Amino acid sequence: MTETRETARRPENGRTAFFVWPFRGSLSRRLLLLTILFVMLAEVLIFVPSVANFRLTWLEQRMAAAQIASLALEARPDNMVTPALREELLENAQVYSVALIRDDARRLVLSDDMPPLVDAEFDLRDAMAMMLIMDAVETIMAREGRIIRVTGEPGFGAGESIEIVLDETPLRKSMLRYAKNIFLLSLVISIITASLVYIVLHFLLVRPMRRLSDNMIAFRENPEDARRVIAPSARDDEIGVAERELADMQIGIRATLNQKARLASLGIAVSKISHDLRNILASAQLISDRIGAVNDPTVQHLAPRLFASIDRAIDLCAKSLKFGVADEPVPERRPVALQPLAQEVVEAVSRDDDGINWIVDIAPDLQIDADPDQLFRLLLNLARNASQAVTEGDGAAPENGEIRLAARRERSHVHIDISDMGPGLPKKALDHLFEPFSGGTRSDGTGLGLAIAAELARSHGGHIELVSTGAAGTTFRVCIPDRGAAHLDCPNKGVAAMAAEGQGI
Which ranges of 77-224 does DSSP label H, i.e. alpha helix? Predict the structure, then answer.
C-alpha cells in the first residue's frame, strides 16, 4: 500500500521532479524555501532598476568630468590647448571627444586625433525608466570595446546639450561588479529575512500545527485513552480555536465510544436474558394451554388475557434477539411483483376475528426492484403496527376498521403507502419515531418494528416517512428507488410540514 501511494506521488517528468522535490516534505522546509524564494524575487524587482540607475549615474559623472575638462579651453583666448594637455584632459574624463551644443550650433570642444567609429547612441534627456532598464540590459550584454555616443544636459546652464564619445567597456565592468555586489547583498538579506520570518512562523504556526497533527495521530491510535485528548492552550487566535474545538470533538468521540461500548455490553446481556426468557416463556405457554383446557368460568375468562400477555412477551424476546444482529445482509435485489407480496403480508397479519377490512390497491403489473424477503419483513412490520393501531386504539375491535396498502411508481422510485383508521400517533412518539426502544406507540411496545423497517428501507437506498396522522388515521410511506437511480426525494409531507398545517399532531 505504501509503495502504491509513493508511486502515485512521483511525477512522470524527471525535470519536473527536480524542481518540485525541494518543496516536498515537512511544512517547515517548504516555509523556509518559499520565504527565501519570495524575498529573492522582491530583491530582483529592486535589483534591475538599481543597475539601470547605476548606469545612468556613471554616464552623468562622465559627462560632468568631460564638461569640466572643456573649461580649460574656455580659459584660453584662442580656445586651443597643447596636444599633451588635450590628451591628459580626455584621459582624465575617460572619453574620446566632447561636444557642446549652444544656440542650435554644435561645436567640437575636445577630440582625439583619430576618434573611433561610434557603434551605438544613447540620449539621456527625458529618458523613461523602462528605456533606461532596457539600455542597461543592452550594456551588460554588449561586446568588449563597443564605442557609444551619449547625449545629455550640461550642468550650470553651459548649453543646450552635451555629447561625449567613450568606450563602454569600463561601464560594463563597473556594472557587472555592482550587480555582483548587489546580488550577494540581496542573497544575504534574503537569507537573514527568511530565517527571521521562518523562526517567527515556526513558533506561531508550524509548531502548533505539528502539535495538532501529532495529537490527532496519537488520538486515532487509541481514542479511549483520556491522556491523548489535547490540552488547549490559552491562545485566542485561530490556532487556539482549533485546539479547543479539537479537544471538544475528542471528548465527544470518547464519550460516544464509551457509550457504544457500554451499550454493546448491555446488548449482549439483554440478548442472553431474552434468549433464556423466551425459553422460559415457551414452557409457560405450554402450561397456559393446559390451563385453558380447564372447564372453569374464571379460568376461561382469564385465560385469553394470559395467552395474550405470554404472546407479547415471546414476541418482545424474539424481536430483541433479531435486532441484536450486528447488521442486515446486503439486499439481493431483483424485479419483484409487488401485489402478490402485499397479499402475503396481509395473509400473515390478518385474522378472521379482528374485524379489519384489508384493501390492496396495487396494480398487478407493478414491479419493484428489491430483495423480496427484506421487503416482506419491512411491510410486515408496518402492517402489524397498523393492525395493532386499529384493533387496540380504543381497547376494542372496530366495527368497520380499514387498512389500505397502495403503491405507485414515480419515475425511478416506487412509493408504498400503508394507511390505517386508527386514532393516530401520540405526540410523544413523534420525536423518536424510528429509534429502537424509543419510538413505540404502545405502553408495552418496543419501537423495534419501525426501527427495523427504516433500516431495511435505508439498505435499499430509500426511506420511510410519516405522511399524516390524526383522528382520521395514520399513513406511512415507503420510498424504494431502483438500482442505479439518481437521488430523487419522495414528495415530503413529513411531521414538520403537518405541524405547520395543524393536522392534529
Answer: 83-93, 129-141, 169-201, 207-221
